[in-house]
Specification:
Blueprint (H helix, E strand, L loop, with lengths): L1 H7 L3 H12 L2 H17 L10 H23 L18 H16 L2 H11 L5 H8 L3 H19 L11
Helix pairs in contact: 2-3, 3-4, 4-7, 5-8, 6-8, 7-8
């Protein structure tokens, strides 16, 4: 059990960040991480000894998230985005807070597949190959989902700025 704790504990903060980014709910994120860790410990004997523990944990977390999404769709549960869900970024920077709100809303608007890839690459700074293993998709799929997700986010945020011009 000590071996498991030594290998798993360093990855818990990253798992929490990813879970929060997926759910936008601190309690839900903690529950998702706890479920992930329970599953990992319960199935520790099934992991590849030469495999990457971090990638394995992210795979479990992502699969649990997708399973939860499917269950919520079947039940018809609807989750809304609330301003209170945004973590404090410094009350003295209202413009930054508004930008964060817009970015989070844009990420929330992405399809789950694009959102997961964007968060794993952009937030967790995982390599494409590792993301492909976590999501169990080809690396080309990771690259196309990332590209489409970034483009959709740019469109959502209006950063195309085609109609803007520089004023001197």
């Amino acid at each position: 059990m000590e071996e498991i704790a030594t290998l798993v504990e360093p990855h818990i903060p990253a798992l929490r960040r990813f879970a929060w980014a997926l759910l936008r709910d601190e309690e839900g994120a903690d529950d998702l991480v706890q479920d992930c860790l329970e599953r990992a410990i319960g199935r520790w004997h099934l992991r590849r000894r030469d495999g990457n523990v971090r990638a394995w944990l992210f795979t479990i977390l992502h699969n649990l998230f997708i399973s939860g999404l499917r269950a919520r769709r079947r039940r018809g549960e609807h989750v809304t985005f609330e301003d209170d869900d945004i973590p404090a970024t410094g009350e003295s920077d209202p413009e930054g807070r508004l930008m964060l709100r817009d970015v989070l809303a844009g990420v929330d608007a992405l399809p789950a597949e694009q959102r997961s890839v964007l968060l794993l690459v952009g937030v967790e700074e995982l390599e494409y190959q590792e993301v492909a293993r976590i999501l169990d998709v080809p690396i080309g799929t990771v690259m196309s989902r990332l590209s489409r997700g970034r483009e959709r986010l740019r469109q959502f945020l209006g950063t195309g700025q085609a109609g803007l011009r520089r004023v001197k």
